[in-house]
Specification:
Elements: E1 2-6, H1 11-22, E2 26-34, H2 48-57, E3 62-66, H3 72-87, E4 91-93, H4 100-112, E5 116-118, H5 126-135, E6 139-146, H6 160-168, E7 180-186, E8 199-204, E9 207-212, H7 213-218
Parallel strand pairs: 1-2, 1-4, 2-3, 4-5
Antiparallel strand pairs: 6-7, 6-9, 8-9
Helix pairs in contact: 5-6
């Protein structure tokens, strides 16, 4: 089965892809929905340059599609249809764990593009998932988080100990409800670890973000 991965650059989409590969499915392309100007990813605020670096380490093409929230679904379906034809795809792999509304939406857009939706992490225990990711060689860094967690978590590598610390604070250790987002630095799918530009941190509304220096320079 040939598939595309809905690739956020973070741990869940990465582990979902690893599990799909383990089942014998063959990855063809990564899809990331970008913000309107096509410079950073809509979900995790990652510059296209970092996402491209991840794709290059997997020797896969990356499709970065600019979208507003208003035309997001229409653009997503259109690009699924285009990629299905271009890469002869059978399925799309997503990293959602238990948000039913997300699964319903993914099933809907895949059906519109005549693709099967596959969610390898669906309904699995959070701490177990984080431990499995770490045991399976995923190295991932927190790149944004809510103010309840605080700026001090930005740039930290997700470890088993950190997952327990988050859980004890009442924070989902997978960040499934948007408490935090991650960036995969290395995993068995990569030929080598990605290299990161320097960064600073910033707070915006109720969220703390990493601001990537290379990207910041590009804006001036």
């Amino acid at each position: 089965m040939r598939f595309l991965t809905s690739w956020s650059g973070g741990k869940d989409s990465c582990y979902a892809m690893m599990l799909a590969v383990k089942q014998g499915f063959v990855p063809q392309v990564l899809l990331n929905m970008m913000n309107e100007n096509g410079k950073i990813s809509r979900s995790h605020g990652l510059p296209l340059s970092i996402l491209k670096q991840q794709a290059q380490k997997m020797q896969l093409p990356l499709e970065g599609v600019p979208a507003t929230w208003g035309d997001y679904e229409a653009k997503f379906i259109a690009v699924l249809k285009m990629l299905k034809a271009k890469y002869t795809l059978d399925a799309a792999v997503f990293g959602d764990i238990d948000l039913q509304a997300h699964k319903d939406w993914e099933d809907k857009v895949c059906e519109a593009a005549s693709l099967q939706s596959i969610l390898p992490l669906w309904q699995q225990d959070r701490i177990t998932l984080v431990n499995e990711m770490i045991d399976n060689g995923i190295e991932t860094m927190i790149v944004s988080c809510n103010t309840a967690m605080g700026e001090g978590y930005l740039g930290r590598i997700l470890s088993k100990e950190l997952a327990i610390e988050l859980q004890e604070k009442g924070i989902d250790p997978c960040g499934e409800n948007g408490e935090f987002h991650t960036l995969v630095l290395n995993c068995p799918l990569f030929s080598e670890r990605i290299s990161l530009p320097d960064y600073s941190t910033k707070m915006h509304n109720d969220y703390c973000f990493i601001i990537w220096e290379d990207f910041h320079k590009d804006q001036h």
